[in-house]
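Ticket 4471: requesting a sanity check on a complex prediction with MGD. Repro inputs:
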Amino acid sequence: MAGKAPESDPVQDAPEVSGPKHSAVGLPAITHALRISRQQMGVKRTALTLLRVNQKEGFDCPGCAWPDPDHRHAAEFCENGAKAVAEEATLRRVTPDFFAAHSVADLAGRSGYWLGQQGRLTQPMYLAEGATHYAPVPWERAFDIIAEELTGLSSPDEAVFYTSGRTSNEAAFLYQLFAREYGTNNLPDCSNMCHESSGSALTETIGIGKGSVSLEDLHKADLIIVAGQNPGTNHPRQLSALEKAKANGAKIISVNPLPEAGLERFKNPQTPRGLAGGGTSLTDLFLQIRLGGDQALFRALNHLLLQTEGALDEDFIREHTHGFEEFAAAAGDGLDWDETLRATGLTRAEIDEALRMVLASKRTIVCWAMGLTQHKHSVPTIREVVNFLLLRGNIGRPGAGVCPVRGHSNVQGDRTMGIFERPAPAFLDALEKEFGFAPPREHGYDVVRAIRALRDGQAKVFFAMGGNFVSATPDTEVTEAAVRRANLTVHVSTKLNRSHAVTGARALILPTLGRTEKDLQSSGEQFVTVEDSMGMVHASRGRLEPASPHLLSEPAIVCRLARRVLGKDSRIPWEEFEKDYATIRDRIARVVPGFEDFNARVASPDGFALPHAPRDDRSFPTATGKANFTAAPVEFPAVPEGRLLLQTLRSHDQYNTTIYGLDDRYRGIKNGRRVVLVHPEDARALGLADGAYTDLVSEWTDGSERRAPGFRVVHYPTARGCAAAYYPETNVLIPLDHTADTSNTPASKSVVIRLEPTGL
Ligand SMILES: Nc1nc2c(c(=O)[nH]1)N[C@H]1C(S)=C(S)[C@@H](COP(=O)(O)OP(=O)(O)OC[C@H]3O[C@@H](n4cnc5c(=O)[nH]c(N)nc54)[C@H](O)[C@@H]3O)O[C@H]1N2
Ligand SMILES: Nc1nc2c(c(=O)[nH]1)N[C@H]1C(S)=C(S)[C@@H](COP(=O)(O)OP(=O)(O)OC[C@H]3O[C@@H](n4cnc5c(=O)[nH]c(N)nc54)[C@H](O)[C@@H]3O)O[C@H]1N2
Ligand SMILES: [Mo]
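Returned structure tokens:
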């Protein structure tokens, strides 16, 4: 039987530190996954559930967006996928009794870890104005309350509809359709905080905001550069792809301020060698870059390529690109090497070694994630990566290309379905033609703008399709105060989280089915579809009995809400959509390019690949009709004397704001999250012994300061001048206005801080 949820909040942070590990996965990963799974699900359910993850007749793992290989192992899961499943398939339940026992103020005082440990939400709950506790509410009344608020607004733009990235294609398509028929493009999503910088940079340069490689391409590459990504924790199945690439002769360069264990050595649990032996060494060259130094690094490589006889793919450049001369003029002569070495923290010899590997490779892929996307100059950084690939024609041929590794399991699909505050006119035209209403054309709020609108009283209703808005977003105090000003906050959720405790004047929690659960509608059992990081679309079918008989699926919630809010004026057959999701897919097929014949094609167990012009035929749907070189000045963060640059990142035992446990095994940290990793020499210069306690104080250009108290200093081999601490605890430090240029993504990986010893 599964263990009970803890009664008291166990977060007595007492971190124990043993130093970084040098390999990832192996037997400890399996043991740990099984322990957490059994605590949440018991033995039998653990076995039944984990065997269905990512199988052709099973459900898509609710963890990350890494694609499924063609030949799946019986247990095609990873430790962190198993933890994500256990979190959802847990046998623990949050019932109305729980809400009667815990006031909202009580819940607001609990840690995110404790809230998540309570189990699955079971009934719609309502917090009336002035009430201290949530009380159960019938679904129909819940929809009435939302309709009252939405129809009472002076403009539809006073409502905000947030989406996290687990929502299926079907639910996402209906949700944006509802928001737009209601009258707003206020559709911020977690992408705004995640890969928005990749989308901005790629759309401008190659004409499509998605990665251009398949799993096969990774297997065929000569060189894979993994920059700003920690796959050992966040995309463990990527390690199998890297292992296969290595077996085929590839080299790997890791670019990271931290020596991440998963990139050093991989012990594949699906091979005897991985379980019992030494595993596979992955990284051939580790470039321990300073935070925010990547644009300078890629510019230096580009400069050297431009100066090396025969290094460029001149045919490709001539036929397929635009802007080469201007770029060559900016990058070709006179690189400031002092600045390059300062920005990157690397030596000239290291950069030369990287160049040798680049020149030896005919097929190069660059993979990246949040280490590149969450800086002020992220968009020019990613554009510089594109310049790098274009110079040698590394796009649109096997074994080469761009590989932004997505986060949430359907975050890419949600965008494809129209969850975007700045929709393309062609998409809106297609909606208009199909459904016969005029969608709003004005751009809506992204995440940061939505918070400002709530703060300034311009947005009054906040509706979230999944996620944990107040914990995931920056500037926690400002954001929480902003959300509290709303008239109504509504969360469609599977699990309890802090966003349920930081509410508007009234609040609703609408509990929904998870991926692992059966979705029965009046026409029979339904499945949904998702798109992975490499543009593959496939079906996902849950098999478990729902956590409670009161749950509605996400599509059903949207359909009922839409009928209640839009009433007879709606031109959309919401009832039919709710009854049979195939009818939703028929509409998607007519609106979204690449989904022609959707129902037939998704019936194939492997699903199908969406078109990607640069990958498929080297055509680039940009403004110039070619792939664009861009020549931006090199930027990197300025850090004043005595200060450090902080990155906020994930531990091994968390999924974004969901905390599975208090360990970060590969980094050798146990039983605590309030740690700050600092290079021993930087720590000594600041007078901070390993084990000292300190406040993290961020300093902002307007002179304001923000403080996160009580972090244990851990001497750790990160790049000099840099520090690392976990999110969401550190979100208090990041000013709302500290965002990437163009993409407006919070710059969560470059926060200037000082350390103030607490003397504890
Ligand atoms: N288990 C688990 N899986 C997850 C998630 C999770 O929380 N838990 N989250 C999901 C989501 S939504 C996402 S977006 C992804 C996130 O996946 P990642 O991007 O891997 O996640 P982070 O922990 O933010 O790690 C950032 C990595 O980039 C490095 N880095 C930071 N700044 C820089 C820099 O300036 N330059 C370079 N070169 N490197 C830098 C850090 O040291 C770290 O290794 O994972 C997804 N998968
Ligand atoms: N400082 C800092 N901040 C960051 C980041 C960082 O690196 N540093 N990373 C950013 C990134 S990359 C991202 S993607 C965001 C994440 O932001 P979000 O996506 O908003 O946050 P999550 O923690 O993933 O959301 C977890 C909640 O989702 C709900 N949930 C889970 N599964 C389902 C489901 O199937 N349906 C529904 N309706 N609800 C479900 C559960 O109630 C759970 O509590 O955070 C961002 N914030
Ligand atoms: Mo993300």
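Notes from triage: The chain has three domains: 94-107+118-192+410-514+544-610, 196-405, 644-757. Leaving this open until the requester confirms.
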